[in-house]
Design brief:
Distance between the termini: 24 Å
Strand order of the largest sheet: 16-12-14-13-19-20-18-21
CATH class of the largest domain: Alpha Beta
CATH architecture of the largest domain: 2-Layer Sandwich
Strand content: 15-25%
Bound molecules: flavin-adenine dinucleotide
Oligomer: single chain
Helix content: 25-40%
Radius of gyration: 21 Å
Largest sheet: 8 strands, antiparallel
Structural class: alpha+beta
Number of strands: 21
Number of domains: 3
C-alpha cells in the first residue's frame, strides 16, 4: 500500500504490518523496516520502502506512581490518552508538541519539544528509561547515561524499535492556562519581547510570514502559565480539570489547491493579526485549546489539497538568529506563496545524540507543495547553512543528504554508529535512505 506522513508527501509504497506482541514484532524485523507511531511526522520518516511496523497495538499503560508522577507505558500509547487519564489526578506531560495525536514512541524518537523547551528541555529529559528492541530481536533497557539512549531520542527510529518507556509527568492544580498575548510590530520587537519573557513557562510567537518592509516579522506572542486553583472561576472550583465542550470539525476531503494562494493567505494572516491586537488582557484557556488549537479540525492536512504540504523547520543559534530570521522571512514574504503558519519558539540546552533542539530560536513555516515552494525551500536551506542553523527531521520530506551533513557535524558520527551495529542493516525509513543515514 501507499503511505505518507502528515504532509501527505511523499507517498511511499510499503508493506504495512501491525504486530500485536513482541514475538510478532520480532518475526517482522526485516531488512529495511521502520517503526511507525501515529504518522504525525510531516515527511517520510515513519514509512519504509520495505516494511513499516505500525505500533498501534502496543498501547497499554503499565504502571503509575501517584507519589512521583512516573508513568510506565508502551510506545503506541497516545499522548491524548495520557492526558485524559492523568490530568484528572493532577498530572500533565512535562513536554508536549502542538498535537496530542502522537504516540509515546514517536515523541521519543523525534525528541519532541514544546513551548517550554527554553525552560524544561525536550522529551528525552522527561524519561527515566526506555526499552528498545534491537535488530536481532533482543530487548535492552536504556537509561539516560547510556550512549544509545541519546542516539535513540531524536534518532527517528533508526537505532531500533522503542517498546516501552518510563516518563515523568508534572503536577498541576488545574487544567487551565493563564494566557497573555503581546503584539510586536516587527521581528526585532518580537525577539526582544520573547527574550524579556524568558521566565514564562510557555512562550510562542505566531508570525505573519507574508508581511513586508517595516512590518516584516510582525508577531503575536503568546505566553502561558499553568493556572492555580484560586485563579479559576468559582463554577470550576469543584472540577478544576473539566474541559469545556469543544466542537470538532472534520476536513472531509482534499481541498482544491487553488484555494490556498498568496491572496487568501495574506487575508487570513492580516485578519489573525488584527484579531490578536484586541486580546491583550490575560485569559484563562483550557489545556486543549491552548496546546492543541489545530486538533480542533480533524484531518486538517487535507486543506492543502492532493499535492500535500511541507513544513520547513530550522533552529538558529542566538548569535545568528536575528539576521538569519530576517533573511528567511524576507525570502518567504517576497516569494508570496500561500504560507499560513509561521511559528517561532525559544530553545534551551542541547540534549545530545542527533536530537534537534539547541540553544537559539526555532522557526517553522508550512507551505503548500508545488514547484515554487520547493525552490523557495532550497533557498531557505542555504540561509540556514549560512547562519549555522540545523533542520528538524520530524518535519523534513525533501532535504538533501548533502545539506543535512553540512548543517550538523553530528550526522557523520550518527551514521557511523549505525553502520557499526546491526541497526544499519535493518532499520531504514524512506527519509533515512534519502538522507544516506
Ligand atoms: C500539528 C502538529 C504539530 C506538531 N508540533 C510539534 C511541536 O511543537 N514540537 C515537536 O517537536 N514536534 C511537533 N510535531 C511533530 C510530531 O510531534 C513528531 O513528528 C512526532 O514524532 C510524531 O509522533 P507519531 O507518534 O505520530 O510518530 P510517527 O510520525 O509515526 O513517527 C515519527 C518518527 O518516530 C519514529 N517512531 C515512531 N514510533 C516509534 C517506536 N515505537 N520506536 C522507534 N521509533 C519510532 C518513526 O520511525 C519516525 O522516525 C507536530 C506535528 C503535527 C502534525
Amino acid at each position: 500500500m501507499k503511505m505518507s506522513g502528515w504532509g501527505r508527501y511523499p507517498m511511499v509504497e510499503t508493506n504495512l504490518v501491525s504486530p500485536h506482541t513482541e514475538k510478532d514484532l520480532r518475526d517482522h524485523l526485516a531488512e529495511g523496516c521502520i517503526a511507525r507511531g501515529n504518522g504525525r511526522a510531516y515527511g517520510d520518516s515513519a514509512v519504509s520502502t520495505g516494511t513499516t511496523l505500525h505500533m498501534r497495538h502496543f498501547n497499554r499503560m503499565l504502571r503509575f506512581d501517584a507519589q512521583t508522577g512516573t508513568l510506565e507505558a508502551e510506545a503506541g500509547v497516545l499522548l491524548e490518552d495520557i492526558i485524559k487519564t492523568f490530568l484528572p489526578q493532577g498530572w500533565f506531560p512535562k513536554v508536549t508538541p502542538g498535537t496530542k495525536y502522537v504516540t509515546l514512541g514517536g515523541m521519543i524518537a523525534a525528541d519532541v519539544h514544546g513551548k517550554n523547551h527554553h525552560k524544561s528541555g525536550g522529551m528525552s529529559e522527561t524519561l527515566t528509561w526506555i526499552d528498545v528492541m534491537n535488530a536481532d530481536g533482543s530487548v535492552q533497557r536504556l537509561s539516560p547515561d547510556d550512549p544509545l539512549f541519546a542516539w535513540t531520542c531524536g534518532g527517528m527510529g533508526l537505532t531500533g524499535v522503542i517498546l516501552r518507556a518510563a516518563i515523568q509527568l508534572r503536577r498541576v492544580e488545574t487544567g487551565y492556562i493563564e494566557q497573555r498575548t503581546l503584539s510586536a510590530p516587527n521581528l526585532q520587537v518580537a525577539l526582544e519581547m520573547l527574550k524579556a519573557a524568558h521566565s514564562a513557562t510557555y512562550s510562542v510567537a505566531w508570525i505573519d510570514c507574508l508581511s513586508k518592509g517595516a512590518a516584516l516579522g510582525r508577531a503575536l506572542i503568546m505566553l502561558g502559565e499553568h493556572a492555580k486553583h484560586s485563579a479559576l472561576h468559582s463554577a470550576l472550583h469543584s472540577d478544576p480539570f473539566a474541559l469545556a465542550p469543544r466542537r470538532k470539525w472534520t476536513m472531509p476531503m482534499a481541498a482544491p489547491q487553488v484555494l490556498l494562494n498568496q491572496y487568501t493567505a495574506r487575508a487570513f494572516n492580516a485578519a489573525y493579526w488584527r484579531a490578536g491586537q484586541h486580546k491583550t488582557d490575560p485569559v484563562l484557556t483550557d489545556w486543549d485549546r491552548y496546546f492543541y488549537p489545530l486538533d480542533a479540525i480533524l484531518g486538517w492536512n487535507r486543506i492543502y489539497g492532493r499535492r500535500g504540504f511541507l513544513q520547513f523547520q530550522c533552529v538558529l543559534p542566538h548569535e545568528t538568529a536575528e539576521g538569519g530570521l530576517q533573511a528567511l522571512l524576507k525570502a518567504t514574504s517576497e516569494a508570496g506563496l500561500g504560507a499560513f503558519l509561521a511559528v517561532l519558539k525559544q530553545m534551551g540546552a542541547e540534549a545530545g545524540g542527533i536530537s534537534f533542539p539547541r540553544p537559539g530560536l526555532t522557526l517553522a513555516i508550512d507551505f503548500p507543495r508545488n514547484q515554487g515552494s520547493l525552490q523557495l525551500m532550497e533557498r531557505l536551506d542555504q540561509i540556514v547553512l549560512a547562519h549555522a542553523g540545523r533542520f528538524y527531521l520530524a518535519k523534513d520530506a525533501r532535504l538533501s543528504a548533502q545539506t543535512l551533513k553540512a548543517s550538523d557535524p553530528r550526522v557523520t558520527p550518527f551514521a557511523q554508529m549505525l553502520q557499526n551495529t546491526e541497526a544499519d542493516n535493518h532499520f531504514h525509513s524512506a527519509q533515512s535512505k534519502r538522507l544516506k543515514l
